[in-house]
């Protein structure tokens, strides 16, 4: 009896693959990861602007991170049971890991901002808004994979532009920071700026992972 159920389950997965349901499920889980990362970026931005106290932002970030981890774990389970995927399986793992890294870096930014206790975090607002914009473009790229694959690369280019914007803001602020008086808060701000730059790099790696996957798909 159990053997029959097992065969029926495998048959059901095959039918789902053929109907495209599994592909949609995989994309939806990646979009859930991006949504968690975006929420983390918004949370970091509210902390930087002073709208939310850094201690409260840090506590809320733990919940957001857990949601992102759940989506990633569910994606890994789905991929292990899926016979056919909309993109190369290895690239999907890489993309998922890169999105997870974005959220991890945002978590570390919020935690360090709380620990360092800087009175003014406004320097982080603009880079974080660029991260949010980039995540929005990445989400749009995911939406278009199944319905409009020809438009995916344009969205990914916009994601990379957001990453470049983060880097430009990081370099400009760092230059201004070291042109002034060197104090302990200067070093603390430098560490937070480096964390924001790391967020941008992870965002760029996410775009690269999806671009590589789309290139493989086109061949």
From TrEMBL:
Coiled coil region boundaries: none
Q: Give one Pfam family, short name only.
A: PhoU_div
InterPro entries to which the protein is assigned, alphabetical: PhoU-like_sf, Put_Phosphate_transp_reg, UPF0111_domain
Which domain of life does the UniProt lineage start with?
Bacteria
PANTHER family assigned to the protein according to its UniProt record, in alphabetical order: UPF0111 PROTEIN YKAA
Concerning its family, UniProt says: Belongs to the UPF0111 family.
Protein name as it appears in the record: DUF47 family protein
Q: Which organism is it from?
A: Nonomuraea bangladeshensis
């Amino acid at each position: 009896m159990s053997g029959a159920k097992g065969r029926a389950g495998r048959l059901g997965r095959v039918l789902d693959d053929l109907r495209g349901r599994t592909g949609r499920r995989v994309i939806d889980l990646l979009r859930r990861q991006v949504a968690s990362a975006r929420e983390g970026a918004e949370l970091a931005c509210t902390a930087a602007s002073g709208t939310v106290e850094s201690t409260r932002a840090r506590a809320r970030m733990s919940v957001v991170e857990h949601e992102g981890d759940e989506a990633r774990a569910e994606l890994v389970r789905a991929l292990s049971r899926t016979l056919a995927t909309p993109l190369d399986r290895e690239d999907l793992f890489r993309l998922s890991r890169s999105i997870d890294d974005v959220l991890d870096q945002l978590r570390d930014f919020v935690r360090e901002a709380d620990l360092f206790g800087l009175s003014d975090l406004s320097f982080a607002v603009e880079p974080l808004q660029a991260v949010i914009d980039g995540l929005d473009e990445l989400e749009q790229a995911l939406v278009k994979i199944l319905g409009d694959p020809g438009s995916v690369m344009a969205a990914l280019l916009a994601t990379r532009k957001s990453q470049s914007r983060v880097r430009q803001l990081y370099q400009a602020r760092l230059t201004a920071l070291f042109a002034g008086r060197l104090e302990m808060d200067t070093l603390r701000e430098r560490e937070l700026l480096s964390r924001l730059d790391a967020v941008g790099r992870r965002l760029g790696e996410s775009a690269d992972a999806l671009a590589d996957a789309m290139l493989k798909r086109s061949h």
